[in-house]
Amino acid sequence: MKAVLLCGGEGTRLRPYTYRMPKPLLPVGGRPILEYTLLNLKRNGIRDVVLTVGYLHEKIVDYFGDGSRLGMHIEYSIEKERLDTAGSVLQAKDLLGNETFFVGMGDHITAINIDKMLDYHEEKGNIATMAFKLQGIPLEYGVAELEDGVVKAFKEKPILSNYINAGMYIFEPAIFEYIQPKEDFGKHVFPRLLKDGKKISSYVFNEFWADVGRIKDYEEMNNILSIVDLMMTLNGNTRK
Prior knowledge:
Layout: E1 2-7, E2 27-28, E3 31-32, H1 33-43, E4 48-53, H2 57-64, E5 73-78, H3 84-91, E6 101-105, E7 108-110, H4 114-124, E8 128-138, E9 143-147, E10 150-155, E11 159-171, H5 185-195, E12 200-204, E13 209-211, H6 215-224, H7 227-235
C-alpha cells in the first residue's frame, strides 16, 4: 500500500516559525515533524510515499530527497497553487496506481497502527475509512441541568468527549470519482459520499497522536517531549 502525506500548506498558524521553513520541516526533539510520520509509515511496512508539497517545497525535497536515507521511496507532487486536501490527492492520482492507499497529514505526529486500520478497512469493505481519536475537552465551569426553575442535575467542570477527525484515511481508488479539483475532504468529499449513499468506516485508535499545527502545540511538544521519549512513544521500545 502506498501513502500520500499532505505537506503543501503555508503554516500560517505557526508564523513566525514558518516564514523561512515549511511546517513539516520544523524540528521537534531534533527531527523534523514529517520525519516522525515517515518513520511510523515505515514501521507499518509502508515504504512508498508521495509527498504533496507547495510552500517552500524545495527545502522538503532537499532534505528528504528520494527517501533512501530512511530506507524508503519518496516521490513528490508539486502544487503550483493551493489545491486543498482532496485536490492535493487528486493531483497525485497518477503516482498512486490502481490500489488502496493511505492519506495522512505532514504536520501530525502519530504512532497509529496502520496495519490494524487496513485490516479494519478491508473487513468493512467500504470506499473510505476515517481514523478517529476520542478527545476530552474540560469545561472551566460547573454545568447544571435545569427544569421548571429547579436544578435537576449538576456536574462540576465536566469533560466533554468527542470523536475527532485525526486527518488519516484509507481509500479505495474509486474515491477519485468523488473528488473535484481544489476540494477539501471534510467540506466536500465526505458529504458527497454520504449523500450518494456510500458508507464511510470509522476506525477509532488509542495510539499517540498530536496535531502540531499551532504555535502552542509546537512549543508544548518541544518542551514536553525529548527525542528519546518521542522515539519510545512511536516505536514502543527504547531507541536503537
